[in-house]
Task: inverse folding
């Protein structure tokens, strides 16, 4: 396997440099409008340095992932989905499905590459989010004028969340709609729709909510509710790729075998999209844990006869070691998946599975850890300047964007059952102690195998077969989670202590299940607890304590008040006393 880590070292350096510029440090906008404009200004700066071309998206996603991983995205959670929509979802869908229309589409591609227009993606509707296969936006073909007419037939079909409410930004959208030809419907397809012209003026028939309408907490972006009223787009705006075509006479030709396959062909960038969004979390995870640990090293606490630091207290060490292990695990899972996705040819099913595991597991493993980082840094941890808050926000946004964690976990469970992906049980390992690496991994495998047996039995015996899956989703969730934990643990193979504490934490958190299924005895739980405490203290003292050096972000940590030479003096300076 080719190692891809160094291919973009210069780009990585340039982006790091950009992230230290004033416009990527603390901003204090006077109004919501100013905040949105500043976000687009930052986007422009990143795009100028990145220089990503459409062809890069087809041939080497490493470049876009490098951009997403960059610390430029630390300042504003809104930058991640904005860049992801522009490059991967909008430009990516156009270039992937251009087929033989590439020359007609070149103008759109040029505009997107140079950011003459920003690309957005409209799939979610007010009534259809995770269940987007049932979306209702319509695209009728007008044979006479050789145009498609896009319509929002009911309120629930309004597109939800795309970045379209700023009045100052040119926007080009890829809109998912149902194709209608001569009173017959032919599935969901992408259409290119110019929504705002070069001056940001809305084009005819497009209605968009005001900037303040979509009041998502902590977002700097211009999310919107959007509806289409007889919006006409040219013939070449239909994106069918090599598999789907609408003839000029209004006939639909397809090489896909079902509407479901058509749907997945249309949403061809969504799997990579999950990896792209997770990439943007990497800098955040690193900063959050590094800043929290920096705080613990500096914060003084009064003892009886002496003064010590938070980092000398066992609860603090254990909590932060736990957070360090979880975030290290999420980062390792991402890196491992990225390496495979960039270097190994994968089928659509394989990519779908990889993307589901990496997105659901990274964000959900990190969720608690990020909250711990914030909580253990007191009021200072809640300050935007100290960067932990943005990590908490972006992680939560990412958990929902491009598929909520729970439905994604359901998809993983379905794969495990229907495609027989359950890893084999290890029967013949003679282990000395339950706390060894091998014994712990064996326990995880036992859990996966038992849960898959339980869900199969439940599905087979449910009296109402049409509701059997819905009635089994709680087991499906446990199965997918156990599998994701195992897959993540495997990626930690080179760091024995981190891997062991990660596995033990899972087993202790699910003690009731392991006990009820007679996989761990009371005595063994006691051993696991003692071992866990011992390893975590060791991890804190020997590894977590130098996390900023490990992630090469000492300079970035130093730019925060917590990381500065003197936190109190920094606040005096900021207060202009
Ligand atoms: C920051 C951000 C940016 C976004 N940007 C865009 C964008 O640019 N373009 C766009 O089109 N959309 C965008 N979205 C929308 C996003 O794709 C949807 O919010 C997402 O798909 C979830 O849909 P929903 O909000 O309707 O939730 P729902 O589908 O209603 O899900 C809510 C909850 O119901 C449960 N649930 C739903 N379905 C199932 C199931 N099958 N099995 C088990 N449980 C289930 C889960 O607990 C889930 O968390 C964005 C969202 C966010 C947060």
Result:
């Amino acid at each position: 396997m080719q190692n891809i880590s160094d291919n973009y070292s210069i780009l990585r350096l340039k982006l790091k440099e950009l992230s230290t510029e004033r416009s990527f440090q603390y901003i204090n906008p006077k109004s919501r409008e100013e905040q949105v404009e500043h976000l687009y200004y930052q986007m422009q700066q990143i795009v100028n340095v990145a220089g990503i071309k459409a062809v890069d998206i087809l041939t080497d996603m490493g470049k876009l992932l490098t951009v997403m991983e960059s610390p430029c995205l630390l300042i504003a959670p809104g930058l991640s989905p904005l860049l992801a929509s522009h490059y991967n979802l909008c430009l990516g869908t156009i270039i992937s499905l251009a087929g033989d229309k590439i020359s007609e589409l070149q103008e759109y591609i040029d505009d997107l590459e140079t950011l003459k227009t920003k690309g957005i993606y409209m799939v979610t509707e007010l009534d259809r989010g995770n269940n987007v296969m049932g979306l209702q936006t319509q695209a009728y073909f007008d044979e006479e004028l050789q145009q498609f007419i896009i319509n929002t037939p009911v309120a629930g079909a309004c597109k939800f969340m795309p970045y379209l409410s700023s009045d100052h930004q040119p926007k080009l959208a890829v809109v998912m709609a149902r194709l209608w030809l001569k009173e017959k419907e032919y599935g969901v397809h992408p259409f290119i729709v110019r929504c705002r012209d070069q001056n940001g003026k809305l084009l005819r028939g497009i209605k968009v909510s005001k900037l303040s309408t979509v009041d998502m907490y902590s977002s700097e972006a211009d999310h919107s509710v959007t509806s289409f009223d007889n919006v006409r787009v040219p013939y070449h705006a239909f994106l069918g790729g090599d598999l789907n075509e609408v003839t000029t006479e209004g006939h639909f030709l397809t090489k896909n075998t079902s509407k479901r396959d058509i749907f997945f062909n249309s949403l061809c960038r969504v799997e990579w999209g999950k990896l792209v969004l997770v990439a943007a979390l990497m800098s955040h995870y690193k900063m959050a844990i590094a800043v929290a640990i920096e705080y613990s090293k500096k914060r003084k606490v009064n003892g009886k006869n002496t003064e010590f630091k938070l980092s000398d207290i066992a609860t603090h060490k254990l909590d932060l070691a736990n957070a360090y292990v979880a975030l290290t695990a999420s980062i390792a899972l991402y890196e491992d998946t990225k390496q495979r996705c960039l270097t190994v040819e994968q089928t659509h099913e394989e990519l779908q599975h990889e993307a589901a595991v990496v997105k659901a597991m990274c964000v959900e493993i990190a969720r608690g850890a990020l909250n711990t980082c914030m909580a253990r840094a007191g009021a200072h941890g809640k300050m935007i300047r100290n960067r932990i808050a943005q990590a908490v926000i972006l992680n939560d946004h990412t958990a929902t964007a491009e598929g909520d964690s729970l439905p994604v976990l359901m998809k993983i469970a379905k794969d495990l059952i229907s495609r027989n992906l359950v890893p084999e049980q290890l029967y013949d390992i003679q282990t000395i102690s339950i706390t060894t690496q091998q014994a712990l991994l064996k326990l995880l495998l036992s859990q996966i195998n038992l849960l898959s047996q339980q869900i199969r039995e439940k599905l087979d015996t449910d009296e109402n077969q049409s509701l059997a899956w819905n009635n089994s989703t709680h087991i499906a969730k446990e199965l997918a989670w156990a599998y994701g934990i195992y897959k993540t643990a495997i990626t930690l193979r080179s760091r024995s202590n981190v891997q062991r504490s990660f596995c033990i934490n899972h087993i202790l958190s699910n003690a009731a299940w392991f006990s009820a299924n007679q996989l761990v005895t009371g005595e063994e739980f006691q051993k696991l607890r003692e071992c866990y405490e011992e390893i975590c203290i060791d991890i804190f003292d020997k590894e977590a304590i130098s996390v900023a050096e490990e992630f090469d972000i000492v300079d970035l940590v130093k730019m925060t008040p917590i990381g500065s030479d003197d936190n109190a003096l920094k606040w005096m300076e900021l207060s202009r006393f």
